[in-house]
Amino acid sequence: MLPILGRIESLLRAAVPAVIEVRVVWPNGERAADTVPDEGIHRIRRVLDDNVNPAIAAHRGRVVVVDLTDGRASIRLEGGCQGCSLAEVTVRQGIERLVRAHCTEVIAVIDITDHSAGTEPFYTPDKR
Questions:
Q1: What is the pLDDT of residues 29-54, one digit of tens each?
Q2: Do 60 and 21 fall into the same domain?
Q3: How far is CA 15 from CA 1, 49, 119, 124, in A?
Q4: Are residues 108 and 47 in the same domain?
């Protein structure tokens, strides 16, 4: 019914990290049936929030989960990670290993970040 809800929640959480959940409630106060949060996305979000984001915060970075489809978790890197020349290493050797270790349904992590739009990458290509 509301397939876009996950994307809206991800965008809101990226803009306002204090947002924990987005839900649709009908005028009578009942929660819409198709808006029950995906438990897999919540597990991935917990791994990112508990293990990854505190580590990359020192580089002014943040990672958000955007989608989970057929075992493939789509993530977006933000802040100092967007456009960072070491982002691929961070995703493959750090983020993907942690997510797959904690979330067995995940078979791959896909970085959907528009790295060319990064305005303040932590490691610019000339620092590498």
A1: 776 655 445 788 889 999 999 999 99
A2: no
A3: 25, 15, 16, 24
A4: yes
